[in-house]
């Protein structure tokens, strides 16, 4: 039996663990110092998660998840290719949500939020809902995204690209960290006041 260790059983880690267990692997995790919310996530309920793998042995690792609810995708690339796709995907996904939150905060600060929402309704009807989802889906996890934005910024810099956007996105999430694990997300107005007091 293969033993797989999970260091951080968040949403992604607990999905990976559940899929590994379903595939017949023994799963252990570093529980020391972890809170009750982490312990609940570690109950390892299966989900629809994709795990990108690269480098030598990637196909062997992917085999441990065959037939599970986790889709293991082997990239044709060296060690680090799987991390690079994560940086690119999260750079867009979480980075664009931070930008939307900052734009709504700017509009609220300047007293033109209603006008902005009205313009979006005419020209880009899905953007207002995306900005609202950025609050409802991410506020309680914003504190976790700070380090991720810093890693993405460092990845951009290492590739010779400007890193400032994701440094700023990290600051947006840092300012929102006070709502860590909140049961009820704040309103957009509360978010705006936190970002641009």
Q: Can you describe what's shown?
A:
With 197 residues, the chain is mainly α. The chain folds into 2 domains: 3-74, no CATH class; 81-195, N-(1-d-carboxylethyl)-l-norvaline Dehydrogenase, domain 2 (Orthogonal Bundle), CATH 1.10.1040.10. 57% of the residues lie in helices and 8% in strands. The chain contains 9 helices and 4 strands. The strands form 2 sheets. Strands 1-2 form a two-stranded parallel sheet. Strand 1 (3-6), helix 1 and strand 2 (26-29) form a beta-alpha-beta unit. Helix 4 (81-109) packs across helix 6 and helix 4 (81-109) crosses helix 7. The radius of gyration is 19 Å and the shape is globular. The N and C termini lie far apart (55 Å). The mean pLDDT is 89.
> How many DSSP-defined strands?
4
What is the subunit arrangement here? single chain
Please write the string of helix (H) and strand (E) elements. Answer: EHEHEHEHHHHHH
- Spans where pLDDT lies below 50 across 5 or more residues: none
Q: For the record, what is the CATH homologous superfamily label of the largest domain?
A: N-(1-d-carboxylethyl)-l-norvaline Dehydrogenase, domain 2
Structural class: mainly alpha
Strand order of the largest sheet: 1-2
How many whole angstroms does the radius of gyration measure? 19 Å
Shape: globular
Distance between the termini: 55 Å
């Amino acid at each position: 039996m293969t033993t797989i260790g999970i260091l951080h059983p968040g949403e992604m880690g607990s999905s990976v663990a559940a899929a590994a267990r379903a595939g017949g692997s023994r799963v252990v995790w570093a529980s020391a110092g972890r809170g009750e919310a982490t312990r609940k996530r570690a109950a390892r309920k299966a989900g629809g998660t994709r795990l990108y793998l690269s480098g030598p042995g990637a196909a062997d690792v992917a085999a441990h998840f065959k037939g599970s609810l986790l889709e293991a995708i082997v990239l044709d690339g060296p060690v680090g290719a799987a991390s690079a796709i994560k940086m690119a995907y999260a750079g867009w996904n979480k980075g664009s949500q931070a930008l939307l939150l900052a734009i709504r905060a700017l509009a609220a600060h300047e007293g033109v939020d209603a006008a902005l929402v009205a313009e979006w309704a005419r020209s880009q009807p899905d953007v207002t809902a995306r900005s609202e989802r950025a609050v409802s889906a991410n506020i309680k996890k914003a504190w976790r995204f700070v380090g991720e934005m810093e890693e993405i910024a460092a990845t951009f810099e290492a590739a010779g690209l400007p890193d400032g956007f994701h440094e700023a996105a990290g600051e947006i999430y840092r300012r929102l960290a006070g709502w860590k694990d909140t049961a009820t997300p704040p309103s957009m107005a509360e978010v705006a006041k936190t970002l641009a007091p």
